[in-house]
Amino acid sequence: MDLAAYRTAAQEYATAWGRAHHRRFAGLDAAWDPASLHAAHADCFTDAAIDGLATEAETGNAGARRLWRFAVSARLRAVAAPHDAQRAREEATGGLARLTAALAAEPDARVRRGLEEQRLALAAEQLTPPAAAALGRVRDEVRALGWPSARALWTAMTGVDLGALAGRAERLLRETEPPTLHEARSRADVPRWHRAAWADPAFPADALLPALRSALVAEGADPDEPGFTLDVDPRPGKSPRAFVAAVRVPGEIHLVVAAGGGHEAAEAVFHEAGHALLLARRDPAWRFEERHLVPAHVSEAAAFRFERHVPDGDEARVRAHIASATLLRRRRQAARLLHELDLLDHGPVEELKERYARRMASATGLAWPGAPWLVDADPLLTAADYVRADEIAAAGT
């Protein structure tokens, strides 16, 4: 296989995707058509391309293994894209972001329960059908690629034993206890608990960027030329949550930040800055897969570590909240991994709905409904990357 030619095509695909993602969610362009983007670069994930990369990977070529995973992931995202687009439309029409924001701001527990009922109805009635369809398409496509299961394919692409990883996730859930979340009693209370409005005085909006600059200096980066563009300008249609768009690594990386204060906003900005800094430090002389295709668990671990630069104001309550949030995330992702593996192994069988509710309730210590059982899962196993990233970040403490 001509790996040089494939790298060129893959770079064009990644650049087109990164640019479209940046422009849409930075509020620069309302157009967003993932299905067309995939179709325009379908040569990157044909049967011939995937088979050729798999053959190269079997020789021990680490770069080819990364390219193989890139191609397979693109193929699976492409088959799921129409269903993901439908889900995104339903989320926008149903006001999912608005409901979640209202939950985060609402002090009255009874009102939160009403808002949560609306959110769960949206999940059950509008979001579950496209989520189920996407899961089905991914499972079917894995078999069409000649693999007996998604578990087998993922293990071959990453070299990670999913059974062993699941075992470590189960051990984490056995050996730790859910954090105490004070007034939080159910899933409906989690957005407000995470928002932690009581900490706002320690995280004023005008202090966020100076704190970020200081953190970059502490990491040995030049804040005025860090290898990425920091976009802080307000504009209609801009994502309220920080994100990174990698158009070309390391030359064109956008860290997009919405104005706002509070600990949750600061944590999100610093997390995304960790991703951006890792990409900005790639050597421009490296091949595409070495620059662009940083393994997801490595990137997430870098982001978790950079979050440690979020200033805590030397307040014990803030530090305790951060520790609880970290433990809650680790336990939730461990439970999600086990659930995603169940779904990939068995499909969306009804018994997994109740297993999901029990598993998440045990992981969080909160009353947890079954309605999000498909909406809360990713058939591409992102939870596996988060679990591995948390292991790396925890080992670095």
List keywords for this structure.
397 residues; mainly alpha; 3-stranded mixed β-sheet; 16 helices; 4% strand; globular
User: Structural class, from secondary structure content?
Assistant: mainly alpha
pLDDT under 50 segments (min length 5)? none
Give the count of helical stretches. Answer: 16
Strand content: under 5%
Task: Describe what you observe in this structure.
There is one protein chain. By secondary structure, this protein is mainly alpha-helical. The chain is 64% helix and 4% strand. It has helices at residues 3-25, 34-40, 47-58, 62-94, 96-105, 109-144, 150-158, 162-175, 190-195, 205-218, 263-280, 288-291, 296-306, 316-346, 351-364, 382-395, and strands spanning 229-231, 243-248, 252-256. It has a 3-stranded mixed β-sheet with strand order 1-3-2. Helix 14 packs antiparallel against helix 16. The longest helix is centred in the N-terminal third of the chain and has 36 residues, at 109-144. The radius of gyration is 21 Å and the shape is globular. The termini are far apart.
What's the helix and strand layout?
Blueprint: H1 3-25, H2 34-40, H3 47-58, H4 62-94, H5 96-105, H6 109-144, H7 150-158, H8 162-175, H9 190-195, H10 205-218, E1 229-231, E2 243-248, E3 252-256, H11 263-280, H12 288-291, H13 296-306, H14 316-346, H15 351-364, H16 382-395
Parallel strand pairs: 1-3
Antiparallel strand pairs: 2-3
Helix pairs in contact: 2-4, 3-4, 4-6, 5-6, 8-14, 11-13, 13-16, 14-15, 14-16
